[in-house]
Specification:
CATH topology of the domain at 68-240: Penicillin binding protein transpeptidase fold
Largest sheet: 6 strands, antiparallel
Strand content: 5-15%
Distance between the termini: 129 Å
Oligomer: single chain
Number of helices: 25
Length: 744
């Protein structure tokens, strides 16, 4: 009895010492509970279209905060069944559950563990993962404090939004988006159970890093739910056999990487590093349908151009080792250096013949290419093909799969393309595609590429000419300048097609993009007149030459600048300023800043007379009816389109700028290192198809618009002209006095 009494006394002294240590040493030095009572999760910067489609996310952690009342019941029950079945019954420390865990551990197999959800919250928010008595005592103290400070729902809400789930993802909402590209409400029971299985080892056992292990843990979660009666046998069987597709990356609702980067730079400039963690949401003026159509149009038409100009050969070659494991490692290594570009996937050829190619993809699948899928690269399959062109085992090629799951050989284009669409009345961006692939080239061609506009500058020269007495009916001599001057000229501009039609109207000249006529018009009104006219449309005067070559677009513009210039014709004569961000809100929805659409058609923004805009609209409409842009009206089936093609010297740049309804848009194609796009390529073959495919979505459901003639114009002499130039007061003919027969 004495020994027993001594032992009890000793234990009492030890217990008293532990309690004294806990309450006198540990307790006073515990961190405050602000992190959980005033929870401010690190939520990334997110960027959206005007119609709420996610286009970008920037931050160290993928996270979406979701209130507990909005978390689906099946996800909560899956979590509680697995991590803490008595969560709503215990006071933070579950002695019964701990006892059961010990027994389960002794029997072997998976169990839910002795840590409650509240204990995990304490550990995740305040403590390290070290396994020491000191840390465990702190955890228990913090657990009791958290339970006293917060309700059970608040604690569960913290856990489900804070827990790390692999792939830089925190919280179940972020994980649902990262692994399945779904919101929490869209998750199936099978997907919810797979997410719940991740916390045990989020780095190695998430569905991306080890799908097999994630599947095994999902089955355990489902079994626990079944045993606890929260799902039926039928639900268990269905979830167990459901095929799960893992995306493995954060997928956005539409492709707008260039826009997302524009916004990121602006927000970070204003909010510094806080931009990446405070849950700021930015709403742009983009429209999802317009943006997605523009993205597809640029991609498809750039690839179409590339296909027209032939296969250049594999991107790289490797030796395929005989050992299977070494072979897989070699393939993995080279494919990491050649990442996919959306649907254009890199693959390593493993087998090749004249009739079939087999190539291994980055995900381990094999692409089998045969039949029509080989046509593009048929020269590379010839026995006598050059070594740099020939497709052999170990070649790194690009393949693409169509809607019927058929593979074809393709390649990454070297050429670039861009597209921008604005609201012609307010200047709001509707779509912007800055290049073929943002991940390959982050240079934004829409806002930063200064390129020669070619013939797309001509309407602005014609606009200046209207103020000098010209009209669409004015006849201009379409013959080379040397043919009428009778002297050999140092610069004698030519028409692109080499054809000269003699006297033609200004309307026909613009529709057919006659170079010589444009130069004659500029020569007549004076270079200074036109040079001073350009800034009205937002062009940089110093970017354009003060000589006759200005008429052929030898200056420099950006696509967005050109779009803003054409908007003046589209909206009746008013200058616009392109703008992108409509609203910035914080994590709680409070508006931090907001940009309202400017009032339209304000006279202080007028830069050309309404009559000038009306007559120019008539001329630009002719281009899409009978001129170089006629395919636009034919393919879109509309009669209210207006615009102008543009092709620079040697076809280095291809353009189309135009508008309909209240949408003005510009498409461009060219090489970053300027070189000819080909002798048979023009703005109509390069850029116009991009414009048509994009505008089809922008104009869907929009009625055709019609313009009424403003006061001060007349159609009395066969075409529109200013009334003050009636009865011979304007320019009837130009350069006819020395007219000669058109040269052959």
């Amino acid at each position: 009895m004495k020994w027993i009494a001594a032992i009890v006394a000793s234990l009492g002294i030890i217990a008293a010492g532990v309690l004294a240590y806990v309450f006198l040493v540990l307790a006073p030095n515990l961190p405050p509970l602000d992190a959980v009572t005033d929870y401010r999760p690190k939520i990334p910067l997110r960027i959206y279209t005007a119609d709420n489609a996610l286009i970008g996310e920037f931050g160290e952690e993928h996270r979406e905060f979701v209130p507990i009342k909005e978390i689906p019941e099946k996800l909560k029950t899956a979590l509680l069944s697995t991590e803490d079945a008595r969560f709503y019954e215990h006071s933070g420390i579950d002695f019964i559950g701990a006892g059961r865990a010990v027994l389960a551990d002794l029997r072997g197999g998976f169990h839910q563990g002795a840590s409650t959800i509240t204990m995990q919250v304490a550990r995740n928010f305040f403590l390290s993962q070290e396994k020491t008595v000191n840390r465990k005592l702190k955890e228990l103290l913090l657990t009791t404090r958290i339970e006293a400070a917060l309700s059970k729902d608040q604690i569960l809400e913290l856990y489900m939004n804070q827990i790390y789930l692999g792939q830089r993802t925190h919280g179940f909402a972020g994980a649902a988006r990262t692994y399945f590209n779904k919101s929490l409400n869209e998750l199936s029971l099978a997907e919810a159970a797979m997410l719940v299985g991740i916390p045990k080892n989020p780095v190695r056992h998430n569905p991306v890093s080890n799908f097999q292990k994630a599947k095994q843990r999902q089955e355990v979660v489902l079994k626990l739910m079944l045993n606890r009666g929260v799902i039926t046998e039928a639900q268990y069987d269905q979830a167990l056999h459901e095929r799960i597709t893992v995306t493995g990356k954060h997928i956005y609702d539409t492709h707008a990487d260039y826009v997302a980067e524009m916004v990121r730079q602006k927000i970070v400039d204003e909010y510094k590093e806080q931009a990446y963690t405070s849950g700021i949401k930015v709403y742009t003026t983009l429209l999802k349908a317009d943006q997605e159509a523009a993205y597809e149009a640029v991609r498809n038409n750039v690839m179409a151009y590339d296909q027209r100009h032939g296969y250049r050969g594999p991107e790289a070659f490797i030796q395929l080792p005989a050992d299977e494991d070494e072979r897989d490692d070699a393939i993995d290594e080279v494919l990491r250096k050649h990442p996919s570009s959306d649907k254009l996937q890199a693959a390593v050829v493993t087998e090749v013949s004249s009739k079939v190619i087999k190539a291994e993809l980055a995900n381990g699948d094999t692409a089998v290419v045969d039949g029509d899928g080989l046509k593009f690269a048929e020269n590379a399959l010839q026995a006598k093909a050059k070594s740099s062109l020939k497709i052999v085992p170990g070649a790194v090629i690009r393949v693409i799969q169509d809607a019927k799951k058929r593979w074809s050989i393709s390649q990454l284009p070297e050429v670039e393309g861009a597209y921008v669409a604005l609201n012609a009345e307010t200047g709001a961006y509707r779509a912007l595609v800055g290049g073929f692939d943002f991940n390959r080239k982050k240079f934004n061609h829409v806002t930063s590429a200064w390129r020669q506009p070619g013939s797309s500058i001509k309407p602005f020269i014609y606009s200046a000419a209207l103020e000098k007495g010209f009209s669409p009916a004015t006849l201009i001599n379409d013959v080379q300048l040397s043919a009428t001057t009778g002297t050999l000229l140092r610069w004698d501009p030519r028409n692109d097609d080499g054809k000269y039609d003699g006297p033609i109207s200004m309307r026909t000249a613009l529709a057919q993009s006659k170079n010589v006529v444009s130069v004659r018009i500029l020569k007549s009104i004076g270079v200074d007149t036109a040079h001073n006219w350009l800034p009205r449309f937002g062009f940089n005067k110093e970017k354009h030459p003060d000589d006759l070559t200005m008429a052929l677009g030898t200056g420099a513009v950006t696509p967005v600048q050109l779009a803003a210039g054409y908007a003046v014709f589209a909206n009746g004569g008013y200058q616009i300023t392109p703008w992108l961000i409509s609203k910035v809100v914080d994590a709680k929805g409070k508006v931090l800043s907001e940009n309202k659409a400017p009032a339209i058609a304000q006279e202080d923004a007028r830069v050309i007379d309404g009559r000038n805009a009306f007559v120019m609209h008539s001329l630009l409409s002719e281009v899409t009816r009978s001129g170089t842009g006629a395919s636009a009206s034919a393919r879109l089936g509309r009669h209210d389109l207006a615009g102008k093609t543009g092709t620079t010297s040697d076809a280095v740049d291809g353009w189309f700028a135009g508008y309909a309804a209240n949408v003005v848009a510009v498409a461009w194609m060219g090489y970053d290192d300027p070189k000819s796009l080909g002798g048979r390529e023009f703005g109509a073959t390069l850029a116009l198809p991009i414009w048509i495919d994009s505008m089809r979505a922008s104009l869907a459901g929009k009625a055709e618009s019609q313009r009424s003639a403003p006061d001060g114009v007349s159609n009395a002499e066969g075409d529109w002209m200013y009334v003050e130039f009636l009865n011979g007061a304007g320019v009837k003919t130009l350069d006819m006095d020395e007219a000669a027969s058109p040269p052959p």
